[in-house]
Amino acid sequence: MLSVIIANHNYAHFLRQAIDSALALDWPNIEVIVVDDGSTDGSHAIIKSYGDKIRGELLPKSTQLDVRNHGFAISKGGIVSFLDSDDLLDPQIMRRAMAVWGDGVSKVQVQMGTIDADGRNLNSDFPRYQSAPTADECRTWILTTSSYPTPPGSGNLYARWFLERIFPLDHSCGDATDSCCVTAAPLLGDVVTIVDVLASYRVHGNNLGAMADLQPRRLHRQIVRAQQRFDYMTRIAGVAGLKVSAPGPQLSLHYLMYRTASYRIAPEEHPLRGDSSLNIVRDAFAAVCRPQGIGVAAKLTVFVWICAVLCSPRSLSEWLMRVRFDSQYRAVQKAKLTRATAS
């Protein structure tokens, strides 16, 4: 059985689409569980409208962790999907996952396509792979750089036996409920990757990782979260008898982009005391030399981006950051470039 667990808080304008995408999955044995976290926007009525097609759980306002823990505790499936209430699943995701599932698999991950608040395709798929990484590669990359190419929550299907080893979740990885799962997966089992878009990630102003306005507090949160993930990864690796060689999150190119933006936007508020442009460039150079599931061209692009953000005039620096962190803005700029090239 596949359990699709949808955690929701005041996302009534997206919730029905998420539920419908779960109910439309091409798989014979599915349970859809919607756990509402004290919504006040009409979400309850939407949940109740499905009757016995889904299991609705209406909780008082609590935390994302409590909601995720509750949903998992009442689920029954041997495979579990944590679908964000603003995201969508492709009807074929379960069949594609089961075609590659095997003994010892902790999760199957897929690529996600980005859509805007109205469901329009933003033509930006992620993660980007040269080829499907092996389970051993994912394990090696996280142990040596603290990261590996992984989608956020909705792009993953987890084995129940794996989740039972880490649930109930606590605040080890902060308030990001996906972090514990994606961090532990390559350490306690095998991660299998499908290089195809089988889920949709909705980009809008209320995403936890939304960066459209480049607010320092959101950038700071990413930096703190990266350190929390590293500490959690170190603990889980110890349980699994694996050796961590990464000195910290500073060898992750993904993390370094947030660190660069945080330092450039508001150096006086930057959470890493004593940090400098020189330190960031030095760490970025070391990261480029470490395999982490990113091609050489992409690594060099990130390195040049980091150097340009740190050294460019403020206006150009902010433009570079918006192009990197804001999918909607990036789509607009890409369209402008296409029109200019065609004319």
Automatic annotation (TrEMBL):
Record keywords: Transferase
Superkingdom per UniProt: Bacteria
Keyword Transferase: yes
Stored SUPFAM superfamilies: Nucleotide-diphospho-sugar transferases (SSF53448)
GO molecular function: hexosyltransferase activity
Domain Glycosyltransferase 2-like: 3-119
PANTHER family membership: GLYCOSYLTRANSFERASE, UDP-GLCNAC:BETAGAL BETA-1,3-N-ACETYLGLUCOSAMINYLTRANSFERASE-LIKE PROTEIN 1
Source species: Bradyrhizobium commune
InterPro entries for the chain: Glyco_trans_2-like (IPR001173), Nucleotide-diphossugar_trans (IPR029044)
Name of the protein in question: Glycosyltransferase family 2 protein
